[in-house]
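Hi U.,

Before I forget, here's the chain from the pilot set. I'm dumping it here mostly so it's searchable later in email.
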Amino acid sequence: MATVLNTYEEEQQAVEQIRSGHQRILAELAKAIVGQRDVTEQLLISLFAGGHCLITGAPGLAKTLLVRSIAQVFHLEFRRIQFTPDLMPADITGTEILEETGDGRRKMQFVKGPIFANVILADEINRTPPKTQAALLEAMQEHQVTVGGVCYTLDEPFFVLATQNPIEMEGTYPLPEAQLDRFMFNVRIDYLPEDDEVTVVQQTTSAAAEPIEPLFTGDDVRRFHAVVRKVPVAEDLVRYAVRLADASRPGRAAAPDFVNQWVSWGAGLRAAQYLVLGAKARALLRGRTHVTFDDLRSLAHATLRHRILVGYRAEAEGVSVENIIDRLLETVKPPTA
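Structure:
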């Protein structure tokens, strides 16, 4: 259930809490995470906006540590699910077992799975087959799971932060498009610069890391969701987000020639929705109560990279989805430009 802010004072208090808390959050995360400022900001934006996030990167880049640290900062119940080829849907959602009662009778009792938490780290989600990956679909969209014909509501706030190794690595199962589209962002995490790697090695081979102090609660996060949605956005900016998504769809009147040549499937409606919602959260984190074109454009890669499917011609010519998004940002101009 969404949190309702009853008074203007409550709304302004939440806005100020977001504005003043941004640097405090980064300071706490810096106790465990070195560098990766863009990655951290995008994860925070998805959390403040109430969206799920996919984190793509090679093993050993602190993806799991980053997600756990964010859960600690917001004092949220955290569960980690290690996805493996033999993982079954019931291992995630829970299952019914036959239990004997005190009077000697037996009844079916539902045992909750690890998905019943606030922050779910779906670690290496593309290591498990699509059947088990799909076990997250209902939870991500409806915030509930259905077992044995009975619906069980998940606690709020609820986030799925999934990590995946690059698709081209051996032993991985690409996520179905329907599930990819439910992730607000696909955040790319890369290797650190040399100086940052030196700092990581020094920190992790000496004394134990300083514990992360919780700064907020689950109720705070729910209030932040309500505040983010109240941030005003001019129609021109919304129209720009819609045009950007529409231009990525081959065969459409607005599609540039390079999209028709290189793209086999473009972004859907959720792309524009998440682009605007993410821009609202980014504006608040930057201390503003209005959205700019820069907010939208800065989140275009994270929002679109998992929603645009490149075709065979693009692969043959060495064109990546990042190249296509760059071209889209160059081609689709803001209405005022």
